[in-house]
Amino acid sequence: MQSIPNCPLCQSEHTYHDGSLFVCPECAHEWDESDQSESSSDNLIVKDSNGNLLADGDDIILIKDLKLKGSSSVLKKGAKAKGIRLVEGDHEIDCKIDGIKIMLKACFVKKA
């Protein structure tokens, strides 16, 4: 019988096998047996709207106008962010544009 591995993100031991995936009930991460070696290497793969790989410290440009939640201001197309930081989650990029710290999805940016 195969032992069930700990969660590669939060290291929880309360994981379980669900069909073809392993599931962590604490952080809701799902992974396949073949993904286990990739996710443990801490290499985050993020691609911009054109398919270029992004890395920490890259510069990006917005490809469309984006409304800011909870504000009446808009980030304009062509605004540039320098020195981005890649993070895991529903938004892949942390950066500052026009002095405002924001989180962006990679589909709204291109590499500068």
UniProtKB/TrEMBL annotation:
SUPFAM superfamilies: Prokaryotic SH3-related domain, Zinc beta-ribbon. It comes from the Bacteria. Residues 46-112 form the Protein YjdM C-terminal domain. It holds the Pfam family YjdM. Residues 4-32 form the Protein YjdM N-terminal domain. Belongs to the YjdM family. This is Alkylphosphonate utilization operon protein PhnA. It comes from Orbus sasakiae.
